[in-house]
Amino acid sequence: MNLSVFCGVSVDGFLARPNGALDFLDAGGNEPHGFEEFFASTDVMVIGRKTYEVVLGFGGWAYGKKPVVVLSSQPLDFSAIQGSATVEQMSGDPASIVQQLSARGFQHAYIDGGITIQRFLAAGLIHRLIVTRVPILIGQGIPLFGALPHDVKLNHIATRTYSGGLVQSEYEIGS
Q1: What are the sequence ranges of the domains in the chain?
Q2: Residue 2 in contact with residue 125, Cβ under 8 Å?
Q3: On the chain, which terminus has fewer CB atoms closer than 10 Å, C or N?
Q4: Edge-to-edge strand list for the sheet holding 167-173
């Protein structure tokens, strides 16, 4: 099973403001930068509880019919999600989550959310990182990367620039 990250960060490396707000991401001009194509290439999404709560605040379910797994050890309320969305809760370490998803036939997971990305990366389970830097410094917030048990070698695949100032780098995780 392949696990990929596709995320936007401030130039100083933050995924969100300290309160979870993502308003600064608009500084990149909202131009197309490959997200739709990436999202279509995945067959399941794995997010943390905090990311789930932020997404609910958008006023509508952003992920359509794509199966979404929300990681939490506490009970979650999915009643706010309307329509034919498939959302479920799981808990456990990243390896057991991947094992459960793989056993169900999923082949490509989109991993999102600060702590979730950090946990899966530390467990050595992420295969691909696509990080889009938005041309803004926010000074503090939720970092993309946290402490790691060891160095993680990245193999550069491509770097793309966009007219609105976005700079996107794609990496495969090395061995």
Answers
A1: 2-173
A2: no
A3: C
A4: 87-90, 68-71, 44-48, 108-112, 2-10, 128-134, 167-173, 154-161
* Segment 93-143, tens digit of pLDDT: 999 999 999 999 999 999 999 999 999 999 999 999 999 999 999 999 999
Residue with tokens 């909202």: 30
- 3-state class (DSSP) for residue 122: helix
d(CA 105, CA 107): 6
CATH architecture of 2-173: 3-Layer(aba) Sandwich (3.40)
DSSP 14: E
Cα angle for residues 118, 124, 127 (degrees, 5° grid): 90
